[in-house]
Amino acid sequence: MAVSSEYLDYVHDQLSGLGGVTSRRMFGGAGLYCDEFFFALIDNDTLYLRVNDANRADFTTRGMSQFRPYPDSPQLSMSYYETPADVLEDAAALVEAGREGREGRQGRKDGQAAARGPLHHTMPETAALRA
To answer: Model's pTM, two decimal places?
Structure first.
């Protein structure tokens, strides 16, 4: 894992609208927290957001790769997916994606999964990813 200071600063700037975002360097990368909930990580200057059953298809239909911490063991993966470039570059879309990742981590007080939010609309399938 590796993350440059410039990329980490850029991600922090893009997520500033989420509020309460902090990062901690770990294993050469960085973990991102919102109000102490781990919701994203950076590895090799790539942002991976936490996903759940409600929003996983938003990432998989666009061909985003799943974070795999051990290249020699591809069967071991985590519930984090690469962030599409257009979402990363659009601060409002990234904040919404981060919010969904945070809500998926926190869960709801009533034990129900968080409803599918606007991220679904900010991550349309593209012809380039279908090819």
So the answer is: 0.74
